[in-house]
Request: fold
Amino acid sequence: MQRLYANTAPVPLSDLYEVVWQAVSPLYVLDNLSPDRLGHLRTVNDHAVQRVLKALASLGVVHLTEEHAELTADGCTGTARMRGEPEPGDAVLRILVELADVDDFRVWRQLLVPASIRLDRLHSVIQAAMGWENCHMHAFTIYGVQYGRSGGEIGFRDKRTATLAALLKPGGADAAPSRPRQRRPQESPRIELTRIGQ
Reply:
Protein backbone atom coordinates (compact mmCIF):
# COMPACT_ATOMS: atom_id res chain seq x y z
CA MET A 1 0.00 0.00 0.00
CA GLN A 2 2.80 2.39 0.84
CA ARG A 3 4.36 1.93 -2.60
CA LEU A 4 1.01 2.64 -4.27
CA TYR A 5 0.40 5.62 -1.98
CA ALA A 6 3.79 7.15 -2.72
CA ASN A 7 3.17 7.17 -6.48
CA THR A 8 0.85 9.50 -8.32
CA ALA A 9 0.92 7.31 -11.45
CA PRO A 10 -0.04 3.65 -11.86
CA VAL A 11 2.63 1.28 -10.54
CA PRO A 12 3.74 -1.68 -12.67
CA LEU A 13 2.73 -4.97 -11.05
CA SER A 14 6.30 -6.22 -11.54
CA ASP A 15 7.49 -3.40 -9.23
CA LEU A 16 4.99 -4.43 -6.55
CA TYR A 17 6.02 -8.07 -6.83
CA GLU A 18 9.64 -7.03 -6.33
CA VAL A 19 8.85 -4.82 -3.33
CA VAL A 20 7.06 -7.68 -1.59
CA TRP A 21 9.80 -10.16 -2.51
CA GLN A 22 12.47 -7.85 -1.08
CA ALA A 23 10.47 -7.49 2.13
CA VAL A 24 9.68 -11.19 2.58
CA SER A 25 12.70 -13.08 1.25
CA PRO A 26 15.20 -11.94 3.94
CA LEU A 27 13.07 -13.76 6.50
CA TYR A 28 14.08 -17.10 4.97
CA VAL A 29 17.31 -18.90 4.16
CA LEU A 30 17.23 -19.18 0.37
CA ASP A 31 20.95 -19.47 -0.37
CA ASN A 32 20.99 -23.19 -1.12
CA LEU A 33 17.87 -23.35 -3.29
CA SER A 34 18.09 -24.41 -6.90
CA PRO A 35 17.18 -21.78 -9.50
CA ASP A 36 14.00 -23.75 -10.30
CA ARG A 37 12.89 -23.80 -6.65
CA LEU A 38 13.72 -20.11 -6.21
CA GLY A 39 11.75 -19.32 -9.38
CA HIS A 40 8.81 -21.29 -8.02
CA LEU A 41 8.88 -19.27 -4.78
CA ARG A 42 8.96 -16.01 -6.77
CA THR A 43 5.89 -17.20 -8.72
CA VAL A 44 4.08 -18.05 -5.47
CA ASN A 45 4.99 -14.59 -4.15
CA ASP A 46 3.65 -12.91 -7.29
CA HIS A 47 0.39 -14.89 -7.14
CA ALA A 48 -0.08 -13.92 -3.48
CA VAL A 49 0.37 -10.24 -4.38
CA GLN A 50 -2.15 -10.65 -7.24
CA ARG A 51 -4.72 -12.15 -4.85
CA VAL A 52 -4.30 -9.28 -2.39
CA LEU A 53 -4.60 -6.68 -5.18
CA LYS A 54 -7.74 -8.37 -6.53
CA ALA A 55 -9.28 -8.34 -3.06
CA LEU A 56 -8.40 -4.63 -2.68
CA ALA A 57 -9.87 -3.94 -6.14
CA SER A 58 -13.12 -5.68 -5.14
CA LEU A 59 -13.30 -3.31 -2.15
CA GLY A 60 -12.81 -0.28 -4.39
CA VAL A 61 -9.43 0.59 -2.88
CA VAL A 62 -7.27 -0.24 -5.92
CA HIS A 63 -7.79 0.17 -9.66
CA LEU A 64 -6.19 -2.89 -11.23
CA THR A 65 -5.27 -3.58 -14.87
CA GLU A 66 -3.32 -6.44 -16.43
CA GLU A 67 0.01 -4.66 -15.87
CA HIS A 68 -0.55 -1.82 -13.36
CA ALA A 69 -2.18 -0.99 -10.02
CA GLU A 70 -3.19 2.38 -8.65
CA LEU A 71 -4.96 3.52 -5.49
CA THR A 72 -8.45 4.92 -5.95
CA ALA A 73 -9.51 8.11 -4.15
CA ASP A 74 -10.95 5.94 -1.36
CA GLY A 75 -7.70 3.98 -1.25
CA CYS A 76 -5.68 7.17 -0.88
CA THR A 77 -7.94 8.44 1.89
CA GLY A 78 -7.83 5.12 3.75
CA THR A 79 -4.05 4.84 3.43
CA ALA A 80 -3.59 8.41 4.65
CA ARG A 81 -5.73 7.57 7.67
CA MET A 82 -3.75 4.39 8.38
CA ARG A 83 -0.57 6.47 8.28
CA GLY A 84 -2.07 8.91 10.78
CA GLU A 85 -2.13 11.79 8.32
CA PRO A 86 -4.70 14.53 8.90
CA GLU A 87 -7.48 15.25 6.46
CA PRO A 88 -8.20 18.84 5.40
CA GLY A 89 -9.86 20.58 8.32
CA ASP A 90 -8.53 18.18 10.98
CA ALA A 91 -7.10 19.73 14.12
CA VAL A 92 -3.30 19.72 14.35
CA LEU A 93 -1.28 19.69 17.55
CA ARG A 94 2.24 20.98 18.11
CA ILE A 95 4.01 18.65 20.51
CA LEU A 96 7.16 19.54 22.40
CA VAL A 97 8.93 16.37 23.53
CA GLU A 98 11.69 17.10 26.04
CA LEU A 99 13.78 14.68 28.06
CA ALA A 100 13.21 15.03 31.78
CA ASP A 101 16.03 15.02 34.33
CA VAL A 102 18.72 16.17 31.91
CA ASP A 103 20.74 18.95 33.56
CA ASP A 104 23.62 19.69 31.21
CA PHE A 105 21.66 20.66 28.10
CA ARG A 106 18.11 20.50 26.73
CA VAL A 107 17.22 17.52 24.56
CA TRP A 108 13.94 18.18 22.77
CA ARG A 109 11.97 17.78 19.56
CA GLN A 110 9.00 19.73 18.27
CA LEU A 111 6.48 17.73 16.24
CA LEU A 112 3.24 18.45 14.39
CA VAL A 113 0.68 15.66 14.56
CA PRO A 114 -3.03 15.37 13.80
CA ALA A 115 -5.18 15.54 16.92
CA SER A 116 -6.82 12.32 15.72
CA ILE A 117 -3.56 10.37 16.02
CA ARG A 118 -3.82 7.19 18.07
CA LEU A 119 -1.42 6.88 20.98
CA ASP A 120 0.28 3.81 19.49
CA ARG A 121 1.06 5.88 16.36
CA LEU A 122 2.20 8.82 18.51
CA HIS A 123 4.58 6.47 20.28
CA SER A 124 6.09 5.47 16.91
CA VAL A 125 6.44 9.14 15.92
CA ILE A 126 8.22 9.98 19.18
CA GLN A 127 10.52 6.95 18.83
CA ALA A 128 11.53 8.04 15.32
CA ALA A 129 11.94 11.71 16.26
CA MET A 130 14.14 10.94 19.26
CA GLY A 131 16.18 8.28 17.46
CA TRP A 132 15.10 5.58 19.87
CA GLU A 133 14.71 1.89 19.07
CA ASN A 134 11.49 1.03 20.91
CA CYS A 135 13.28 -1.26 23.35
CA HIS A 136 11.64 -0.24 26.65
CA MET A 137 8.18 -0.79 28.02
CA HIS A 138 6.26 2.48 27.98
CA ALA A 139 2.91 4.07 28.77
CA PHE A 140 1.31 7.46 28.25
CA THR A 141 -0.06 9.09 31.37
CA ILE A 142 -2.81 11.56 30.47
CA TYR A 143 -4.68 13.24 33.32
CA GLY A 144 -3.61 10.44 35.64
CA VAL A 145 -4.74 7.58 33.38
CA GLN A 146 -2.12 5.29 31.87
CA TYR A 147 -2.40 4.08 28.27
CA GLY A 148 -0.12 1.36 26.96
CA ARG A 149 -0.19 -2.24 25.84
CA SER A 150 -3.42 -3.63 27.22
CA GLY A 151 -4.08 -7.11 28.51
CA GLY A 152 -1.13 -7.35 30.88
CA GLU A 153 -0.90 -7.43 34.63
CA ILE A 154 -0.25 -3.69 34.85
CA GLY A 155 -3.75 -2.81 33.66
CA PHE A 156 -3.06 -0.13 31.07
CA ARG A 157 -5.86 1.17 28.92
CA ASP A 158 -5.36 0.24 25.26
CA LYS A 159 -3.20 2.82 23.47
CA ARG A 160 -4.42 1.51 20.09
CA THR A 161 -7.96 2.74 20.71
CA ALA A 162 -7.16 6.10 22.31
CA THR A 163 -6.62 9.29 20.30
CA LEU A 164 -5.19 12.56 21.52
CA ALA A 165 -8.30 14.47 20.42
CA ALA A 166 -10.56 12.25 22.52
CA LEU A 167 -8.36 12.52 25.60
CA LEU A 168 -7.57 16.23 25.69
CA LYS A 169 -9.59 18.51 27.92
CA PRO A 170 -10.88 21.74 26.41
CA GLY A 171 -8.52 24.67 26.86
CA GLY A 172 -5.40 22.71 27.66
CA ALA A 173 -3.35 19.62 27.27
CA ASP A 174 -1.26 17.57 29.60
CA ALA A 175 0.38 14.34 28.56
CA ALA A 176 3.50 12.56 29.69
CA PRO A 177 4.83 9.31 28.33
CA SER A 178 6.32 7.29 31.12
CA ARG A 179 8.23 4.08 31.21
CA PRO A 180 7.37 1.84 34.14
CA ARG A 181 10.44 -0.01 35.42
CA GLN A 182 12.61 2.24 33.28
CA ARG A 183 16.29 1.71 34.05
CA ARG A 184 17.33 5.12 32.73
CA PRO A 185 14.79 7.66 34.03
CA GLN A 186 16.58 10.49 32.21
CA GLU A 187 15.07 9.15 28.99
CA SER A 188 11.48 9.63 30.15
CA PRO A 189 10.21 12.57 28.13
CA ARG A 190 7.81 15.30 29.15
CA ILE A 191 5.33 16.38 26.48
CA GLU A 192 3.55 19.70 26.03
CA LEU A 193 0.72 19.95 23.53
CA THR A 194 -0.54 23.10 21.78
CA ARG A 195 -3.52 23.11 19.43
CA ILE A 196 -2.54 25.07 16.31
CA GLY A 197 -5.20 24.27 13.74
CA GLN A 198 -9.00 23.98 13.64
Remarks:
- Residues 173-186 have pLDDT under 50 and may be disordered.
- The helical segments are 2-6, 13-24, 35-58, 73-82, 119-130, 164-167.
- Residues 97 and 126 are 8 Å apart (CA to CA).
